[in-house]
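Fold this complex.
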Amino acid sequence: MRMQLKNLFVVALLCFISATGFAQTNKNSIDDRQEESRKQTKTIISEGEFKDVEVNFLLNYYNQDGDHSPVTGGRGTEQLDNIAPSFVVHIPMDSLSNLDLNFGIDIYSSASTDNIDYFETHKTSASSSDARAHINATYSHILSKSGNVYSALAGFSKEFDVTSFHAGGSFTFNSKDQNRSLIIDGLYMNDSWKLLYPVELRTGTKWLKDDVRTTMKLGLSYSQVLGKKLQALFSAELVSQTGLLSTPFHRVFFDDAFAFADNKSSLQSLSHVEMLDDNRLKIPVSMRWSYYLNDLMRVKAFYRFYTDSWGITAHTASIDLPMMLSSSFIVSPFFRYHTQTAADYFHEFGTVSASNTPQFYTSDHDLSKFDSYKVGMGFQYDPLMGIGNFKSMVRKNRTTQFKSIGLRTAYYKRSDGLKAWLVSLDFGFTF
Amino acid sequence: MGFLAMIAMNSCVSVAAYQKTYLNDEEMALQAKKLEVYETNFEAYREGAAGANGGKSGGGCGCN
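Structure:
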């Protein structure tokens, strides 16, 4: 009897231990599964799994021609063609931070740069070509308590004779009612030049003392809601440039060359390298308005006043009229007018005094007195459900959407005869 | 003058978030569209004036 009780006790004890152990395992499994689920959820949110990455592929073709190339002293073809593909990528990193990338390449052929060696070989058509690659990155973060925003940016570009990098940042103060915002921004740029002089002036003489251009910009923007259908933006900048502000391969001919304007062999010994001041202060100030006229049309207007230390004063005004032909299709005709005075150092071909030469001189018509206008049209197709949807090859269990198509074309004409036209395309995707 | 007028109207205007249907329209944004960057760039290259429009103010390229 005693043995039976003892055995019974041992069996009961063993059963109790086994039951307890099994129960423990079950409890751990539930906890483990819950913990695993929490980890997965946290991982998903931290990766921004539910936020779309937006990618825009942009493509531009630009063509210009004129008869005042600065490479040949303010006379000669300004023909240029440029193709510029680029990508703009917007990456939401979390609910408060974004990373924006912009990279692309400009591929151009230019009759002007072809004439840097104008006196070496005779060229009558645009055959010189080059490419400029560029990349920019901007990180922005919203401060959750105040709603203010700070950002930092950096970028780099490279072409055959110029290597540039830039860095900057901004801070945005937003009012609590989101009716006003103030943005303060700063930018620093450094351009290193390879000093390529016109072929006849490559004599070993260092015509220009600097080979670096430094640009520093301080900007202020203030936006204000002026009513339920009207808002405006005021912008002002202070831009300081120092160092190499001349273009090494731009020629200038003095008045002793005027009589030989059509005699190429005589001109060869009479050319000079463009000489500009090594500092320049620019002050552009602008206003921008957006007005909701009605469900069909918006009105967007822009005005800028510009002045600088080189004597240029300019006024620029433009108007854009987006029209909603449907909920998906927008047509935007636009017009821009610009007028400017000449820089103090600007001289037409053969008008700089050889006997009493000023310190600074240029025949670059971009710095001359002129009026210009630009007219064009924009189109955008952006249906609510996208143009096409397909399985993402980048993100698991997500859909890539072909979201929108945009097209913009413009014709530009300057009063000195320069003409240009361009067409741009925008393909928008979300991932 | 425009800037001063905007500041002066500050105290006159208060639009609540639910009243901003028109202001939040995509075409009402107070900035240039992505496609406009190409035009802004060539205007900065071909004109003596630049800046205060979201584009280049000078430098960063073989340009003015």
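DSSP finds two helices and no strands in chain B.
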